Amino acid sequence: MIAESDRRRRVDALLVYRCGKAELVAREKSGTMVETVENLILDLLEWVARKERTYQETLDAWRTSCPRLPVWEDANDRGLVETASANGRLVIKLTATGAALLREKRPHSDGQPV
After folding, report:
1. This prediction's pTM
2. What confidence score (pLDDT) does residue 31 get?
3. Is residue 51 part of a domain?
4. Buried b (16+ CB within 10 A) or exposed e, 26-56
5. Engineering a disulfide at 59: which of 42, 44, 49, 63 sits with its beta carbon 3.0 to 4.6 angstroms away?
């Protein structure tokens, strides 16, 4: 039988893969870091929805090497954004899933370009 404190300890840590290796990152019990990343992902979705963004522009603005703030990486892994070719350049667009999440979590943002 697993002690309750051991079970909590496992839940309060997460395994992050970056640069081909695994790191164990402690997560605050309140879930603050998870909530922060989720809100930043929604910010990214709103930013992409406002106007067409190039791949380079998006990476310059949103990519980070910090394993605690994997905003760009999480948005990609969850299928919320996609890279497409337009007029000979790579652009970032919301997927249907990303637009639906944006409408659900931030109803004031319609998820459409302005």
Report:
1. 0.66
2. 53
3. yes
4. eeeeeeeeeeebeebbbebbbebbeeebeee
5. 63
